[in-house]
Every structure is written in C-alpha cells, then in structure tokens.
Amino acid sequence: MARMFRVLGFWTLVIGLMAFAGHMIEMAMLFFFQTAVFVLLGYLNFSERTYILMFWGYMIISFVGFTYWSVFEMGLPF
C-alpha cells in the first residue's frame, strides 16, 4: 500500500507538470503539494489500514472541495 501512495505521487507530479506547461500555475502548485504529501506518506510505512483510512479521508476532502468550488465559486453557466 505504501507503493501506491508513491504511485499517486508520480501521477500527481505528471498532472502538475502538465498544468505548469499549460500556464495554470495555481493548479500546478496544488498538484506539486499533493505530490510531496503522497511521496512523504509513501515512505512512512504505515499499516495498510492506516493507508486506506488516509486515502478515504483524502477522497472525501477532495470531493467536498471540488463540489464547493464548482457550485459556489465558479457560478452558474448562463
């Protein structure tokens, strides 16, 4: 399970680099931060249960944040 967090770190790095190349600096910085957190957590060797709980927490926070941003910050599309 620790390897999967390092894999998540790799893919968030790839997404961050693509965002940086597309001049989306805020998105790139967010993904670079996520890369650092995922790689750090990947090397801490927690138990599998801890990794699963951390991933569920990450998913809940990211989905709530995405929903908030898309509903309240982006506005209506008319």
UniProtKB/TrEMBL annotation:
Protein name, as recorded: DUF2626 domain-containing protein
Superkingdom assignment: Bacteria
Transmembrane segments: 31-46, 53-72
Keyword entries, A-Z: Membrane, Transmembrane, Transmembrane helix
Pfam families: DUF2626
InterPro entries the record matches: DUF2626
